[in-house]
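Researcher: Let's do a round of design. I'm pasting the structure tokens now; please hold your answer until I've finished.
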């Protein structure tokens, strides 16, 4: 027997239509590449998105066509999100930090028809244009007065939308229709595309609104430092309009000082991004001895949030949510807001211990950990195995890539994350490492994340990473790579003393190397792959 309820397709454009009608005073504030600050409401945005819908149609974009963006966080990028998906196209956000080979590969693989780019990326595109699809149309996201040198033959965004009507007859699309496309940064092999649907995107927006609702309320002012070019900025461009939160887009400058000034001026209540970004902000908060006005919550994800970072924020009155997810999951899988019952009953240290874990699953995402034979392991906080996930916001395959799809899914259709994890009885996820970053020593595992988390708390350490070095006897042994904070060099004895409070003696790193900076991936995470390559011939003291 079926229920007798209407079935309305979940639709991305309806999110913005809703915000334009109901959250009429919420703002979108953008630091522009033109050098100034732009502000308008969701109502204004919806009207311009209508104009852009007409403009895309006039460019010949039809349902299913891929339209690429190469842009920072700003209102025009936001408009593209809605207009492209709204007319039935697929918004392909490109990470500007990809290599030329990767950029070339994904624009061809996606068969992008149009590329919208910020003024800052005109030189980059001119340098690679002859490798990109030959019939690509380029649109620079600015007005006629700011078209940069080198943009001959490219169209101008404001001219393109200017003459069009603000009302667009948005089609009613089946909810499974593809809406956006994001390639994983792919540290090895070619990038793989996750292609999200209207349904998965709207369900993800609901999920975030429920699970992280305390920082996403009507009147909240949310700063996505996480880029619009990386997994749809963790869904914020959809969840903020849904909940009535304002969006503050930072543009290209993401250093501590720029972020602090913007957050202070715009009274940002909640900021979202990867740990590397918060290091800069915490340095600035430390130097000024005060928080940006109104700053009360931070969401940290993308890589493990160090305990000392969580503690520093919490001490400063900023509540931390440590979340985990991945491109293939839209991306949020778990969130670490401490439940009230924990805040009431646990000590600060116990709370910090829990916040350093990767949080608990959000509704709609199921987790399982399995051993090498594929058998499920208990959620006892001890057993560690590969983490698999399932849910409406998880990919069912990679875009036009059967081999990668087959490799990622198990026989029951669960998606293998490539992370090695444990799960506690009350549901906290403990990410031990990426499977390929774990250090295998004498048949046992050493978690690089565990070691880094401790060492980063040393006052002379600015950042650090632990990598495996091949070893004739033990298979692999850990090497600690440190970026010093000042002139002092932390000693091996000091590091060992700190670490021995948390790990066994055989897990201590065999040596320390000092570097000026750590290599980062296109999404701002430490690139362990590059580090391993750099230290490929490294000789540990006992070798
Ligand atoms: P991406 O698809 O580029 O966002 O990368 C996803 C991967 O980042 C995950 O599979 C994890 O290995 C890692 N990751 C994301 N969030 C966390 C976290 N909170 N702690 C540890 N690793 C994380």
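Researcher: That's everything. Go ahead.
Model: Designed sequence:
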């Amino acid at each position: 027997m079926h229920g007798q309820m209407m079935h309305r397709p979940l639709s991305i454009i309806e999110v913005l239509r809703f915000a334009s009608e109901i959250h009429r005073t919420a703002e979108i504030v953008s630091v522009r590449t033109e050098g100034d600050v732009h502000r308008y409401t969701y109502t204004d945005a919806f009207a311009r998105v209508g104009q852009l819908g007409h403009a895309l149609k006039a460019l010949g974009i039809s349902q299913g066509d891929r339209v690429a963006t190469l842009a920072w966080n700003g209102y025009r990028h936001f408009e593209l999100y809605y207009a492209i998906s709204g007319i039935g196209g697929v918004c392909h956000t490109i990470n500007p930090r990809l290599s030329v080979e990767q950029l070339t590969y994904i624009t061809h693989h996606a068969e992008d028809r149009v590329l919208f780019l910020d003024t800052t990326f005109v030189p980059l595109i001119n340098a690679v244009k002859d490798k990109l699809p030959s019939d690509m149309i380029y649109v620079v996201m600015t007005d006629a007065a700011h078209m940069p040198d080198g943009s001959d033959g490219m169209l101008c965004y404001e001219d393109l939308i200017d003459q069009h009507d603000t009302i667009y007859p948005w089609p009613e699309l089946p909810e499974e229709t593809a809406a956006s496309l994001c390639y994983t940064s792919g540290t090895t092999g070619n990038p793989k595309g996750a292609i999200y649907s209207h349904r998965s995107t709207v369900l993800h927006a609901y999920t975030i609104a429920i699970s992280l609702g305390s920082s996403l309320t009507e009147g909240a002012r949310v700063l996505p430092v996480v880029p619009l070019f990386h997994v749809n900025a963790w869904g914020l461009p959809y969840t903020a309009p849904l909940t009535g939160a304002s969006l503050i887009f930072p543009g290209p400058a993401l250093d501590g000082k720029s972020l602090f000034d913007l957050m202070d001026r715009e009274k940002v209540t909640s900021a979202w991004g990867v740990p590397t970004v918060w290091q800069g902000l915490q340095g600035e908060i430390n130097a000024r001895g005060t928080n940006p006005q109104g700053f009360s919550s931070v969401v940290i994800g993308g890589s493990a949030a160090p305990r000392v970072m969580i503690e520093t924020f919490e001490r400063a009155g900023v509540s931390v949510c440590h979340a985990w997810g991945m491109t293939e999951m839209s991306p949020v899988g778990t969130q670490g807001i401490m439940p009230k019952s924990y805040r009431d009953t646990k000590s600060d240290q116990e709370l910090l211990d829990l916040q350093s874990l990767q949080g608990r699953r959000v509704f709609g995402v199921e987790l399982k950990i399995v051993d090498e034979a594929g058998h499920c392991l208990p959620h006892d906080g001890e057993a560690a195995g590969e983490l698999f996930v399932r849910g409406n916001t998880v990919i069912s395959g990679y875009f036009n890539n059967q081999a990668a799809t087959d490799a990622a899914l198990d026989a029951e259709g669960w998606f293998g994350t490539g992370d090695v994890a444990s799960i506690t009885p009350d549901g906290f996820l403990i990410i031990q490492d990426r499977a390929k970053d774990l250090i295998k020593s004498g048949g046992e595992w050493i978690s690089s994340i565990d070691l880094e988390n401790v060492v980063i708390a040393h006052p002379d350490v600015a950042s650090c990473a632990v990598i495996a070095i091949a070893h004739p006897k033990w298979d692999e042994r850990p090497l600690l790579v440190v970026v010093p904070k000042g002139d002092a060099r932390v000693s091996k004895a000091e590091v060992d003393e700190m670490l021995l409070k948390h790990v066994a003696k055989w897990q201590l790193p065999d040596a320390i190397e000092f570097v000026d900076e750590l290599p980062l991936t296109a999404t701002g995470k430490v690139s362990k792959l590059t580090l391993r390559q750099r230290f490929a011939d490294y000789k540990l003291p006992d070798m």
